[in-house]
Specification:
Blueprint lengths: L1 E2 H4 E5 L16 E5 L4 E2 L2 E2 L5 E4 L14 E4 L1 E2 L8 E3 L7 E2 L3 E6 L5 H7 L3 H11 L5 E2 L2 H5 L2 E2 L4 H40 L8 E3 L4 E5 L12 E7 L4 E2 L2 E2 L5 E6 H7 L6 E4 L1 E2 L7 E3 L8 E2 L3 E6 L7 H9 L1 H10 L1 E3 L2 E3 L2 H5 L2 E3 L3 H41 L13
Parallel strand pairs: 3-10, 16-23
Antiparallel strand pairs: 1-13, 2-11, 3-6, 4-5, 7-9, 7-11, 8-12, 14-27, 15-24, 16-19, 17-18, 20-22, 20-24, 21-26, 25-26
């Protein structure tokens, strides 16, 4: 068991002023990585800033095997994020980050995997909390304890974790590619929506209702707690049910706001990117209602409009442009009301075309779901292997020698 500080060098980030930085690649300037460049699958190289190369010391240039860590953030969930450099990078990192550079006693991949473990994240959560901003000090990282088996065993462990991680990455890539396929299907079938002459207002084929107000006066009488969906739960054509809150409602309120299968949920506003964001409810919970910052659109005549088609039209660029054009906007905030939503000019292709689109999209979604199930199993396996690897039990049933 060794201290991280005994097997790695800790390097501070580049300090620069706002006037020193530019968002464009410029001769004599070097790119700088920031916390936003630390992703679940590694370091990303978009949204870079560039600073004069004179401000960057040689040792601050990113090397293969370096572990880049977000050391300061207003968000406790962001501080401590870590990713390992897969190769040398002709750039450095900002002052709100740190780099840990492993020494020759440690296999770099083994070292990098440690900073993805649940035990590391728990350590960060315990030590980083501050009054106004969350910080990881030098001693918080240097004092971490790492199990250090023989170098050959480190390499074997890293190889096992890398193998599972590679398959996980391929599953995630497949899910993204299927998203691209679905968008391509939509564009090929309905890419000329703006040019469609025959349009009807959305309100002529749908019932629109806003949801329950959380801060209302609680009704008198028989109440029950039920889950409700808020803006954070509704994403573009998908739901995020990782956190679902409950609220006490009367029988009448439950009857009024209870979601039915294939109700379309839309956000009324906030940041412009949240405007008109929506997805279909598929009965993911036995009982659920929706908050007043969400609109529920219920198609009344499915011989006119298929809900899947409706969801895709509203979330398309055509739909988003309509909402941005008609929304009430203040500084950084945009919102729509029920009348503006009801007046949405909905192109009406033949129902047989809408249903063909639905069938094709559902086949893509079925493939995606199969990949998600497999990915969840791989995630569970990866977590188990991590725990066993860094507790020294991964090879307990068969402990090969270095010579093997």
């Amino acid at each position: 068991m060794v201290r991280i500080g005994d097997v790695s060098e800790q390097i501070r980030g580049v300090t620069y002023g706002k006037a020193d930085a530019t968002s464009k690649s410029t001769p004599g300037y070097l790119p700088i990585l920031r916390a936003g460049n630390i992703g679940e699958s590694g370091i990303t190289f978009d949204d870079l800033v560039y600073v004069p190369s004179a401000k960057v010391a040689e040792r601050q240039l990113i090397r293969q095997g370096d572990v880049l860590i977000a050391a300061s953030s207003g968000s406790l969930s962001a501080v401590g994020k870590a990713a390992q450099a897969a190769e040398d990078f002709a750039g450095a990192f900002g002052a709100f980050c740190k780099v840990l550079r492993p020494c020759e006693r440690v296999d770099a991949r083994y070292f990098g995997h440690f900073f993805r473990t649940a035990s590391y994240r728990r350590h960060v959560a315990n030590v980083a909390a501050g009054a106004n901003i969350n910080n990881l000090r030098n001693e918080h990282l240097d004092g971490l304890i790492l199990r250090l088996p023989s170098f050959m065993e480190q390499k074997r462990i890293a190889a096992v974790l890398d193998q599972v991680d590679t398959v996980r990455a391929k599953r995630r890539e497949a899910i993204v590619l299927l998203d691209d396929l679905a968008r391509s299907i939509y564009f090929n079938m309905f890419g000329n929506l703006v040019e469609v002459a025959e349009k009807v207002p959305l309100s002529s084929v749908a019932n629109i209702a806003s949801g329950i107000t959380k801060g209302r006066k609680e009704p008198i009488g028989e109440l029950q707690n039920v889950p409700y969906l808020a803006v954070v739960n509704v994403q573009d054509r998908k739901l995020n049910l990782s956190t679902v809150k409950e609220i006490s409602v009367s029988v009448a309120e439950l009857e009024r706001f209870r979601l039915q299968s294939e109700d379309l949920l839309l956000t009324e506003g906030g940041d412009p990117d949240k405007l008109g964001r929506g997805t279909l409810w598929r009965g993911e919970l036995p009982v659920c209602i929706h908050q007043n910052h969400l609109f529920r659109v219920r198609v009344m005549d499915r011989e006119d409009v298929d809900p899947v088609y409706l969801n895709w039209v509203i979330s398309s660029n055509y739909g988003k442009n309509y909402f941005l054009r008609t929304a009430k906007q203040t500084t950084g905030i945009a919102s729509i009301n029920k009348s503006q939503l009801g007046a949405f000019p909905l192109p009406m292709p033949p129902l047989v075309q809408q249903r063909e689109f639905r069938a094709r999209i559902e086949r893509v979604e079925a493939h995606q779901q199969a990949h998600r199930i497999h990915l969840a199993a791989l995630d569970e396996l990866f977590t188990s292997l991590q725990r066993r690897a860094f507790s020294g039990t991964l090879w307990e049933s068969e402990a090969p020698s270095d010579a093997a």
